[in-house]
Specification:
This protein has about 130 residues and is mainly α. About 65% of the residues lie in helices and about 0% in strands. The protein starts with a helix and ends in an 8-residue tail after the last helix.
């Protein structure tokens, strides 16, 4: 009884192993035919086209990606010069309850700059 079950299990394992070999051979053949199926001379051409379509190997700025592939990249902004007057303005705006985004829009400086000024002036809540 148990010996019959063991024989049956061994036979099933043999069938699974044979199926795995068959499937592996079919997959290899199918993958090898992909370049010709899509009009490429060789695998390297297909891989290059896939990488180009996926954007692999190149860095795309968000502004360029949003504006479309043919658009010229946006010019880089100059670094803002943070003056004492600007620090005072940030302080008064924070005390007036303005958000970081509102301060950025009003003063034309980056959000990290606003955060750095707030931190230097001690306007950041403890734990943040």
């Amino acid at each position: 009884m148990i010996s019959e079950d063991i024989k049956e299990l061994d036979a099933a394992r043999a069938r699974v192993a044979e199926l795995e070999k068959t499937v592996a051979a079919q997959m290899t053949a199918e993958l090898a035919s992909l370049p010709a199926k899509y009009g490429f001379a060789d695998l390297d051409g297909l891989i290059a086209a896939l990488k180009a379509a996926a954007g692999v190997g190149r860095k795309v700025r968000k502004a360029k990606a949003a504006s479309g592939a043919g658009a010229a990249p946006a010019p880089r902004r100059k670094r803002a010069t943070i003056t004492d007057a600007m620090r005072a303005e940030v302080k008064s705006m924070v005390e007036a309850g303005k958000t970081g985004t509102e301060i950025v829009a009003a003063l034309g400086i980056s959000l990290p700059s606003v955060q750095n000024i707030k931190k230097a002036l001690g306007l950041v809540k403890p734990g943040k």
